[in-house]
Write a sequence for this structure.
C-alpha cells in the first residue's frame, strides 16, 4: 500500500486564505510551512478560476497581474515571501473561490543560434527570431555572439552549427 504524500503547506488552504484576504495567515504559519510557500506557484494558481463567471475571471487575472505579477520579478521582492503573500491577498474578493492550475506552454528546444538571437533580441517572438536568422549571415551572427561576451568555445560550437545549417 502506498503512503499518501503529505505537503508542508496545503495549497487549497493557502488559496482560501488568499481569497478571503486573510492578511495574518502567512504570519501564523510554522517555519516549515513558510519555507514551503512558493509565491510564484501561488500566483499561478490564484490567477485562474473556472470561467463560469467571465467578469470574475477577468477580475482575478487583472488583480493578480496588476498587484503581484508586475512586482514578483523584482529581486528585492524575491527576498520577502510574506510580502509576496500579502500582495497576492490583495487580489482576493473576500470569499473562497475554486481555482485551477493551467499548465504553462511547453518549452521548445531551440538551437544555439536561435538561443543567441533571443538573448540579443529579448522581446522578439519565435517568428521574429527566425526572420533575424534569415536576414543575417554567419559573420553577423558570430559578431552578435562576441558582443554578448560569448567565449571562444561557444563561438566555435555556434560556427559548427551554422555550417551544418548552411549559413
Amino acid at each position: 500500500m502506498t503512503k499518501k504524500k503529505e505537503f508542508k503547506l496545503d495549497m487549497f488552504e493557502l488559496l482560501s486564505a488568499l481569497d478571503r484576504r486573510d492578511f495574518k495567515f502567512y504570519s501564523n504559519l510554522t517555519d516549515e510551512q513558510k519555507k514551503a510557500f512558493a509565491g510564484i506557484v501561488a500566483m499561478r494558481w490564484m490567477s485562474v478560476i473556472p470561467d463560469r463567471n467571465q467578469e470574475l475571471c477577468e477580475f482575478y487575472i487583472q488583480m493578480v497581474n496588476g498587484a503581484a505579477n508586475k512586482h514578483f520579478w523584482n529581486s528585492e521582492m524575491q527576498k520577502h515571501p510574506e510580502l509576496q503573500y500579502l500582495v497576492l491577498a490583495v487580489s482576493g474578493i473576500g470569499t473562497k473561490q475554486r481555482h485551477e492550475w493551467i499548465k504553462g506552454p511547453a518549452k521548445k528546444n531551440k538551437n544555439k543560434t536561435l538561443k543567441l538571437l533571443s538573448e540579443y533580441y529579448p522581446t522578439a517572438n519565435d517568428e521574429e527570431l527566425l526572420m533575424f536568422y534569415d536576414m543575417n549571415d554567419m559573420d553577423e551572427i558570430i559578431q552578435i555572439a562576441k558582443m554578448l561576451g560569448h567565449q571562444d568555445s561557444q563561438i566555435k560550437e555556434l560556427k559548427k552549427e551554422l555550417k551544418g545549417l548552411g549559413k
In short: The mean pLDDT is 86.
